[in-house]
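Students often ask why we bother encoding 3D structure as a string. The short answer is that it lets us treat folding as translation between two languages. Here is a chain of 750 residues written in the first language.
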Amino acid sequence: MAGLRLVLAGLPGIACGADTAGSPPMLPEVQVVDTVPLSGIGVPLNQVPANVQTVTRDQLLRQPGSNLSEILNLNVGSVNINDTQGNPFQPDVNFRGFSASPILGTPAGMSVFVDGVRVNEAFGDTVNWDLIPKSAIASITLLPGSNPVFGLNTLGGALAINTKNGFQFPGTELRANGGSFGRQTYELETGGHGGHADYFITGNVFDDRGWGQHNPSRVNQWFAQTGVQGNSTQLQASFTYADTRLAGNQTLPLSFFNDPSQAYTFPDITANRLAFLNLKGAHTLSANTQIAANAYYRSVTTNIFNSNINDNFNTGLPPGSGNQPAFNAINNIGENRRGGSFQLTALGDLANRKNSLTVGLSYDRGNIDFTQFNQEAPLAPDRDTASAANPVLRTSLRATTGHYGLYITDTFALNEKTHLTVSGRYNRATLELQDQLGTALNGNHRFQRFNPAIGLTYNPVNVLTTYVSYNEGMRVPTPVELTCSDRNAPCSLPNAFSADPPLNAVVSKTREVGARGRWSEGIAWSAALFRTDLTDDIQFISSGGGAASSGYFQNVGTTRRAGLELSLDNKIGKLDLSARYSHISATFRTPLILNSPNNSAARPLQCPACTDIQVTPGNRIPGIPRHLLKLRADYRFADNLSAGMGLFAAASQYARGDENNLDVNGPVPGYAVVSLDARYNLARNLDLLGTINNVFNRQYQTFGLLGQNVFTAPGHAFDYTGASFRPEQFRAAAAPRAAWIGIAYRFSSR
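And here it is in the second language, the structure alphabet:
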């Protein structure tokens, strides 16, 4: 931000929003946001043709949430989470019907950046929320649409996270929290600075046994940053380390919901380890010109143990070696990525009009080592598969990815009230696959495209901004998708690779029109209409069987996400009120025939033995609620006491496998949940914190899929005859009521 202040100091009428330290007092406050991956000079919000949403550090301190995904769910419109694993650090985060998820098999549609580095992992474009320390976050910005400047996978939006430093966050604070599910969390942060140098260090330890029977979590996260700032130059180095072990409960068939805390099969464990070094800098060449650059190295090691039902179990033979009812997939994924970006921003006059130009280039290279071992496994009476045979190596793959990008964005003042923004990015992506056990998986893939964008803002008065925009984005198939795209050889995710047909890149085209403004000093509002059409969209198609995660990836033609966003924030004395409403219509636009053996409407369409469904234009895409509502109220009873209440409501959604919307089980029902939180200042530097989630202890589900239930014998035991196997709707149960209490102690005031 130092470089930003340096440049803005020479521009009349512009200041950098909340962070105005050092700015001349005569400059009026204008909120500025970054609209490019690297933080820089920024653009005044009233010139940005999009419904940009931000989460400030005040919101991060005031509202509860154990991790970043919960923060987004609480604060950002059009966001909801699908708790597919029953673990608080492994949800799908959905925005406008697009997902950022740690789970392979969830179609990716958002790009996530931390201090200018894209943290979508190379293997499956997944986002590991457990590797982003909440205590290191200074601010969050969500830019909607297919903004091409943010590169690959920005189909529905780009999430930009900025971390803390010692200039903005001096002092030392300790936070501790405990309560339901045996949860204990400890956070420590300390920061400081001299005249030109600063440091910031934070650590987070999270441990709980989980609300389910077999889903404990252990998360250790550390972040350290140091930097120097001169009159025209700033340099910063940061290092993030994380070591996590997360256990999930899978989805459950409806017949299991007499006890939603139980597991279908177990164990299911994901262990991640991260080492992430990021170097960045900015230099102000003149009052109107700045250069910025970064270089990074990111290493992620993931070890996954997945229990699965064996779809090839022969019910006509006794169980034993070579014919066990279950198997375990043991996956080891090593990902090393390195890269960097360079960016030039210049302010000036063009044809006697104010103009802001940014040009940048980026390069990212990823090296992936993947191995998968399978273990035959008998089933214990409680559906435990841990007593298994020796693992057998099934897959060994090396993959190399290369992403090259050249982008430009220019904002031109047509007059004092009207600004035109034109952007574009050329992307080139390469992917090389090398089979380490043979040649079946070998392959080389190349994708390239130029994606344009154009937008117009008009400010008839200072308190009103209107805008219209059009932009295009691109997503290329990932290694996991390219090697799991054959309906005749479905994969049991995280993956059982085979030589599969290629997939096409996904292209998105987004149109948006909206307005935002203030009715008075205390009332802010926004409204937006949007539509994103995807060509050659990629979806994960469930293949059925006892392994509910079994399936394959397929291009499904054209899909659409369209909707409406409304927001209102009102400050009345000691009361702060906010409301967020979203209508999201996510539909297929191309006729499709999909394999869905557990759909009650399935019938032979492509072959005599096929179990297919006919998808018609207008059918809703599974997993996306049509309506979302968020209400929040915060009240300050006294200077030392405040409390908040939140309501989150989501409409029904269709289950995966019910793409034709005709299955007899119908959609997963909608739900509404209430949360409470409070903060009480016991002493000058000591706060008492309290949180209650799901106050009324509602039993609800956030996701569904169609599968075959094989545990149909008495006591939910495996039916070794197969006579009573039956299709059911599986759902992801949400956590019951929970309460936590904690303290926050500041060793020095801020």
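Translate back mentally: The chain has one domain: 31-316+327-744. Keep this in mind for the problem set.
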